[in-house]
Amino acid sequence: MNQELIGILDQTIVMLQQHREDELRTLLDELHPADLAELLEELEDEQRAAVVQLMSGPTAAEAIAELELEEQAAIVTALPPEKAKAILDEMSADDAADLFAELEPEDAGSLLQLMTQEDATDVRELMTFPEDTAGGIMTTEFVAIGAQRTAADAIDELRRAAPSAETAYYVYVVDEQGRLVGVLSLRELIVAQPDAEIRSIMRTNVVSVHVNDDQEEVARTVQKYNLLAVPVVDDQDVLRGIVTVDDVIDVLEEEATEDIFRAGGVSDAEQQLDLEGPIWPAIRARLPWLLGLLFLSLVSGKVIEGFTPLMDRVTALAIFITTMAGGAGNAATQALTVVVRGLATGEMERDQVGRVVWREARIGIVIGAICGLVLGVTAMVWNHSPWIGLIVGLSIAINLMLAKAAGSLVPVIIQRLGLDPAVASGPFIATITDTTSMLVYFSIAALILGAVL
Amino acid sequence: MNQELIGILDQTIVMLQQHREDELRTLLDELHPADLAELLEELEDEQRAAVVQLMSGPTAAEAIAELELEEQAAIVTALPPEKAKAILDEMSADDAADLFAELEPEDAGSLLQLMTQEDATDVRELMTFPEDTAGGIMTTEFVAIGAQRTAADAIDELRRAAPSAETAYYVYVVDEQGRLVGVLSLRELIVAQPDAEIRSIMRTNVVSVHVNDDQEEVARTVQKYNLLAVPVVDDQDVLRGIVTVDDVIDVLEEEATEDIFRAGGVSDAEQQLDLEGPIWPAIRARLPWLLGLLFLSLVSGKVIEGFTPLMDRVTALAIFITTMAGGAGNAATQALTVVVRGLATGEMERDQVGRVVWREARIGIVIGAICGLVLGVTAMVWNHSPWIGLIVGLSIAINLMLAKAAGSLVPVIIQRLGLDPAVASGPFIATITDTTSMLVYFSIAALILGAVL
């Protein structure tokens, strides 16, 4: 929240206390809905209800749509029915559908009855699509026209429909069955002769997505073709809705957060959580990973146990356990990060996989050799023993090399299994390399010390 | 690359070999510039030059602008001057400025001379702004008009300027000094009476950014206010350019990749690297981190060394070193991930820091208690020793708790120091917690075993 908004927040609270409603309304009228949303977030329930009452239907609808769904539901259910209706009527169908999905069934039912028949039908239809598909994020507010009409007709249609800001920049051309056959941007319409037939000026190779397409795929399409909105069609090619660029930005952000959370070994469930919320949902999201990895790490403990007789004779070996395990984990995490991100953004394609993994292996060889040499010399000096130096150096070299190969290969394997490569998190790969690094380290130690002791 | 494009790629290569230029031109004319860009990426240098020669100036300009800057530079410098001019003339000023920044100075100089005086001036001006600022990503193609003109004038102006698709959706209103005073969306213009004075219909509280603003801040502004473009002003409030939503998407993606790379302990330098490119730049990007962390991990080795006499007596202690260090690292990485992402997306604000860290500490207490209990019992059964069970259980509990607190606190401290919290990577925090976990584990072991042995 910037300084200016904090000032307005303070003023709002004072005006509410002093019942200066008219002044407050004037103050709030000046604000952008996105700023109003930030303001609402900071207010207590009662203050919030009073402020929403002061806002006009369209402004309230836009501001509320910017809030978390949980907060939206709390506000709308607390409002008197007529105010709730005024807001819902102005909300775009996709925002309303998301909100209704969050409500208790009985609340949703009674609110749907307040809405016009048409809006309620739109919302019910949108609610049938899974949240993370094109159908789940599309809006049904779009302007469509027949190919036999003229540019002037299309502009009239736009003027009449007066759609909301994000949805007004393309006019879609459909046939009698509602099938998508062309598109015109508002810019093209303005530049066209008013009496030009749509058919003769429309673009016919329209980029579109299917209602069932994953939201990330939809976002990538909009990103690739620099679109402001993408039309969504069904199996019959019938135009069902559009996904606008502002929603695409939110999807890309959500997907990036999801990937970042998975990479950090946090379940995506936590993405929905409030950073200041109750701790139990967060515990449920993190505990399975942590506990699972702790048990997995016992495998490396088992390896160490097998070599305790050796460590009894050369206690200095224990000193380098964390360096060995940590170094391998870090090297693997680096490779994993680069490969998982490459797969997520589509920068790395299926046919490149072999070459990328081979490149990581070569990087591992060089990095392993350098780190092995440096750490080997360090260990030698520290322990006054060339043998410890040799063991540590050689193990670091081999471990880093293996770690780079594993870090790049594991996400690829996971993807081949049909899973999201992002589930191969840094913590997961680090726990796996704990075991291999202990095996390599102690085996080399046993070999070398067996020869010299 | 999808199946359809792969087919077109094959056709393109065949047609090139058989010199069927006219057919190829028809084939390529059907393609979207973004698909043409993908095609160009797959072609050999010579084929690529031949294909670019066949494309019209505007199409070639759009397609080339989609490529990596390195590839753009290679293509443009290899073209005959008149074709290069045709393409550069059609390129938007911001794309051209990015391209010129990539060229060798002599190439840039001779190409700039080919351009019209006006375009060259725009490009030179844009090149003065740092890459990652609003000035560096803005384009100078925008439509501006005086407040005393009418809606019809504005539409005429749009028609005359016929700007590129992304820049046509707002008309900015400026005063005699070129200062930004208002804005009108194309939609608002269409709905307005043709003879309405701009002054009376424009919105005056315009969201704008400053030329020196960081690109991430610009992107967040566009995202927050659901804009299609944001105007960029200088110190005198003079309108200097606009940043369009398609560039904002690329910025957000770039910033997400940067954060992901840092979280994985990879330098952002690697973001610029080709996944199949030479290995040396990647080695340079990763080696410092890895080697630094290896040395840092020697501190935990030093702690272990201090306790070797204890381990000599109770060798079972060594078995749990990796579990102890790994568990703490993983718990810290989880907390770190949530906090760093919260700071990056602006979801977590300065005044929340204390409450978020305190929440993480409480999560750590519960998770630590549960994991400590489970692992303690496991260790007890494994080693047939209640004392080992007690040591492992207690250490896991304390270590996970400390790790959660450290994982949430370290990025906050880094931010307070004025650095990007994303530099606190998983590998970094895991290496730090290696040391604390060894200290806790062996201290508890010494205490308990000292009492019972």
Give an account of the 3D structure.
The structure is a homodimer of 453-residue chains. In chain A, the strands form two sheets. In chain A, strands 1-2-3 form a three-stranded mixed beta sheet. Chain A has a three-stranded mixed beta sheet with strand order 4-5-6. The termini of chain A are far apart. The first copy, chain A, is mainly alpha-helical and 453 residues long. Chain A is built from 23 helices and six strands. Chain A is elongated, with a radius of gyration of 30 Å. In chain A, a hairpin with a 5-residue loop joins β2 and β3 (180-185). Chain A folds into three domains: 3-128, Alpha Horseshoe (MgtE N-terminal fold); 138-253, CBS-domain, CATH 3.10.580.10; 271-452, SLC41 divalent cation transporters, integral membrane domain (Tetracycline Repressor, domain 2, Orthogonal Bundle), CATH 1.10.357.20. Chain A has helices at residues 3-17, 21-29, 33-42, 45-54, 57-65, 69-78, 81-90, 93-102, 105-114, 117-126, 134-137, 151-161, 186-191, 198-201, 215-224, 245-263, 279-306, 308-313, 316-319, 321-345, 353-383, 386-416, 426-452, and strands spanning 143-146, 170-174, 180-185, 209-210, 229-233, 239-244. The relative contact order of chain A is 0.06. At the A-B interface, α12, α13, α15, α16 and α17 of A face α12, α13, α15, α16 and α17 of B.
